Amino acid sequence: MSQADANDSDPEIERINLRISRSFREVIDETWRERGFNSRSEFIRYALRESVNHPEGASFWKDLAISEAQFDESEGRPSEEIKAAYGSDDE
Questions:
Q1: At what angle do helices 22-34 and 58-72 cross, to 10 degrees?
Q2: How far apart are CA 27 and CA 4, in angstroms?
Q3: Distance from CA of residue 44 to its chain's centroid?
């Protein structure tokens, strides 16, 4: 049984749906793997907790999401540029 299956029976755990661009999902997938998380969901839960507990860092994720959406429309900055602007050199 996977961790996700185990959580389905926990009344405290709720499933949500989230719509994001494909390119942003690719950035998220690359990031959770690079940082050693076991799954996309685990990484997203961590990122959400960090945003709630440390709202001053949330602007990075907001700027990254906006940039990725604009990038899809050929108007934005690459995620590497956003990461560099915030000093996030995870590569």
A1: 140
A2: 22
A3: 5
Which pTM was predicted? 0.53
Q: Identify the three-state secondary structure at position 44.
A: helix
- Please give the backbone phi and psi of residue 75, each rounded to the nearest 5 degrees, phi first: -120, -10
Hey, what are 41's tokens? Answer: 């969901």
Give the position of tokens 């690079």: 34
Residues 6+ apart with CB under 8 A from 33: none
In this structure, which amino acid lies at residue 56?
Answer: E
* % of the chain surpassing 90 pLDDT: 25
Helices (H), the chain: 3-8, 22-34, 40-53, 58-72, 79-85
Alpha-carbon gap, residue 91 to 52, rounded angstroms: 25
pLDDT in tens, 60-91: 767 777 777 776 666 556 667 767 777 765 54
